[in-house]
Fold this sequence. Notes:
Layout (H helix, E strand, L loop, with lengths): L3 H12 L8 H15 L5 H19 L5 H15 L3 E2 L11 H7 L1 E2 L1 H14 L4 E4 L6 E4 L5 E4 L4 E3 L1 H12 L7 H4 L5 H19 L2 H14 L4 H14 L2 H14 L4 H17 L4
Parallel strand pairs: 1-2
Antiparallel strand pairs: 3-4, 4-5, 5-6
Amino acid sequence: MHSPLTVRERFAELARRGDAELDYGDLEWGAIWIAAEEYPQLDADAVRAELDRLGEAAREKLEGAGDDAGRVERLNRYLFEEEGFAGANEYYDPRNSYLNEVLERRCGIPITLALVYIGVGRRAGLDVRGIPFPGHFLVRCGGREQRIVDAFHGRTLSTRECELRLAAALGPAARLEPEILLRDATAREILVRMLSNLRGIFAERGDAERLLACCDRVVLLTPRDPLALRDRALVYQQLGWLAPAIADLDAALSNAPPGDLARALRRRRDALRERLGPVN
């Protein structure tokens, strides 16, 4: 069992690590601590043990598969056919964003299914990394023949399919630049994207408590990001907590480059200062 305070402290400790230290092993722990705030009885070791079990079974399945492409296809069959992992029908069900629920229910959204794929694939001996593709998180399996995997639909993608997906997400003029759009995602980016998905769900539901918890953890991961600070300030403002909202807007201003964003932050901060009035 984990108290919320202990869980948040563990997440904060992980978030404070430098990018060079925050690796994909830490990514799993970060996802576990995100889930543990929602599920106080969560057994973190049991979640890791399930990934270990899947990874060991996958390693056995991959034996004798031949080249890298064959190993990836065999991993796909194991996870998506034998184990039954699949994209969730109810995309905005928050359970699809919690690693323990994805492992138990065998369904999730692109980024959480990718997290499972990464964890199992790496345990099976593959070099697997996330790709922060616009609109739909993907996975890269390295090796001599790199393969792009869509864990939500349970299959590999061709370059042409990636181009079509990019056009659907960004418009027909968008060009697939692999060094930008098919680059490896860092563990920090993946955790921020997971929390951003949950933040959108809780904002839509009007769940201010959970929305603020998501914003808090994004700020822990990116403490100098003016947009993350602004987003938390907006939640504080909705709750009527004007002093912390102003503090976040001040911090956002100190990190925002000159331009439209800085002007918008300053206007909002000054308006809140007027509402708050003099502080004695």
